[in-house]
Amino acid sequence: MLAVAEFSGLCRGNPVRISRDLETVSGRIVSYDPGTGVVIGTFKVDILDVRDLENKKKLFMEHILKDVSDCRLWVKIVLSSELCARFRKISTIRLSSRTSEALIVKLKNYVYALWCRSGARTARLTVLSDVASWRPGELTEIVCSCEKMPKLFDDIREDLMMVVEGTQETAWNRRTSKAS
């Protein structure tokens, strides 16, 4: 399962070197503004592959983060159609229009939005908030400091593994089973 991490911050180092470092983790610099020094980059992680996840967390923390200050990060996850169907079954809220649909899914660590566009072959899963601070109606993705990236990735991996293994029970399912 592919997670696409995007980040931005103030470049304190050489943007060309940062770009070369990112290439080793399937990433790249998307934008660099020499006037302000702001850099925007992206890299891809197989979130369920522990080795890939650990390698990319380590490289990011040791090489990229030292050259980017006030760094902020957000994550999008690309889902297969099989996993998309599993998320549909455990969703708690559904919002739809003619062209797209958003499903809200509460898992152990985070609340996610599953975004599906009509005719699109893939669905995108975004992290909205941690479970404790989420409020219904919040549909914007969470942006966190890059220093928190290792914990964010570990928690996302834990949530997704529960769905992959089929051990996740949503808060909605627990409420309805108690009422029976």
Q: How large is the share of residues in beta strands?
A: 35-45%
Mean pLDDT over the full residue set? 85
Total of helices: 5
Strand runs, count: 9
* Class based on secondary structure composition and strand pairing: alpha+beta
Question: In which range does the helix fraction lie?
Answer: 25-40%
Residue windows where pLDDT falls under 50 for at least 5 positions: 170-180
End-to-end separation in angstroms reads 36 Å
Largest sheet: 9 strands, antiparallel
Radius of gyration using CA atoms only: 17 Å
Order of helices and strands: EHEEHEHEEEEEHH
Shape: globular
Characterise the protein shown here.
- The chain is of the alpha+beta class.
- Helix content is 33%, strand content 37%.
- It has helices at residues 15-23, 50-64, 81-90, 149-165, 171-179; strands spanning 2-11, 27-33, 38-46, 68-79, 93-96, 100-106, 110-117, 123-130, 144-145.
- Strands 1, 2, 3, 4, 5, 6, 7, 8 and 9 form a nine-stranded antiparallel sheet that branches.
- The longest helix is centred in the C-terminal third of the chain and has 17 residues, at 149-165.
- Mean pLDDT is 85; it is low at 170-180.
Question: What are the main properties of this structure?
Answer:
globular; 9-stranded antiparallel β-sheet; 180 residues; 9 strands; 37% strand; alpha+beta
List the helices and strands and how they pair.
Layout: E1 2-11, H1 15-23, E2 27-33, E3 38-46, H2 50-64, E4 68-79, H3 81-90, E5 93-96, E6 100-106, E7 110-117, E8 123-130, E9 144-145, H4 149-165, H5 171-179
Antiparallel strand pairs: 1-3, 1-4, 2-3, 4-8, 4-9, 5-6, 6-7, 7-8
